[in-house]
Amino acid sequence: MKIDQNAVKILKKSRGGIGISIFLVETHTHLDLIKRSTEEVVEEAAQKGVTKMVTIGIDLESSKTALKFASRWEGVYAAVGFHPHEAKFLEEKNWEELQKLAREGGDRIVAIGETGLDYYRKHSPISCQVEAFKKQIGLAKKLNLPLIIHSREAHQDTLKILAEEARGLKVIIHCFSGDGELAEECLKRGYYLGIGGVVTFDNAKNIRTVVEQIPLDHIVLETDSPYLAPHPFRGKPNEPRYLPLIAEKIAELKKISLEEVAKITSTNCKKILGI
Ligand SMILES: [Zn+2]
Ligand SMILES: [Zn+2]
Questions:
Q1: What is the number of the ligand closest to the CA of 227?
Q2: Where are the domains of the chain?
Q3: Cα–ligand 1 centroid distance for 29 (angstroms)
Q4: pLDDT, averaged in runs of 10, over the chain (275 residues)
Q5: Can you tell me the distance from the alpha carbon of 148 to that of 171, in angstroms, rounded to the nearest whole number?
Q6: pTM beyond cutoff 0.90
Q7: Cα-to-centroid distance, 134 and ligand 2 (Å)
Q8: What residues have CB less than 8 Å from 120, skipping those under 6 apart?
Q9: Concatenated DSSP letters for 225-269?
Q10: What does the alpha-carbon distance between residue 121 and residue 227 come to, in Å, rounded to a whole number?
Q11: Phi/psi of residue 90, nearest 5 degrees
Q12: Domain 21-273 architecture
C-alpha cells in the first residue's frame, strides 16, 4: 500500500538541550477507540519520541480502520484480528473478509491480533474464543506474521494452544499479567512480553518483580490506549504519548538509562515486527 504524502513528520525529542534523542515503539494502541483527532494523537506521540506505533484491530471494522490509519501515516502500522471478546462474531463471512484484509494489507500489516483467550469477562463463550484463536494462528502461519496475544485469567490454556498450534511463530504476550514462573515459560519459548501502564501502578508489585527479573531483550513497550493509562494519568483516557512514562519506569526498575530501554526495546520490535 502507498503511504500518504502528508505523512506526519517524525519529530525528535531533545532532552536537556544536549540533543539526546529518544525514539520509542508503541506496540499496542487502539487508535480507533481514542476519542480525539487521530491526527493529533499521532503527532503528539511523535513529539514525545513515539515515532512508530502498531494500532490493533479487535474486530473486522476496527481492523479495516487500523489498515486505513496505517496507510495514512508512515509511522503507524496495523495488526488485524478478532479480540476474544468479539470471537462470537467471527462467523464465515467476517472470517473471509478478515483473511482478505490481512492478505491485501501488504507490509502495512505487521501482525495478527489481538487474539487469545479472556476468561475474566467471557463476552464470548470459551468454545468460540478457542476456535477464533486457532483460526487466527492458522492465518498468521499462512502469512508468516507474528501474533499479538491477549490472555486474561486464561494463561494455561493460552500457552497450551500456542504450544500446539503456533510453533515457529513469533509471539507477543500483550499486557503481560502473569507471575515470574509464567514469564520464564514465555522466555523459554522465545516469546516477547508487552509491558504497559500497569507497571507504574502502586499496587502492581507482581508485574514490577517480573520486569526486574526478565531480560530487557524480551520486553516490548505498549500503552493499550485508551485503556490502562500510566501513573499519574491512571483512570483517565490513555494515549500513545504516555509511552515514555512506561519506559521511564522500566529504566528505574532495571537501574539503566532511558536511552538503553529505548534502544533495546526498539531493537526487539525490529526483530519481531520488522518495524
Ligand atoms: Zn488486550
Ligand atoms: Zn488491546
A1: 2
A2: 21-273
A3: 10
A4: 41 40 94 97 95 98 98 97 97 97 96 97 96 98 98 97 98 96 97 98 95 97 98 97 97 96 97 97
A5: 6
A6: yes
A7: 18
A8: 152, 153, 154
A9: BTSSPPTTSTTSPP-GGGHHHHHHHHHHHHTS-HHHHHHHHHHHH
A10: 16
A11: -85, 60
A12: Alpha-Beta Barrel (3.20)
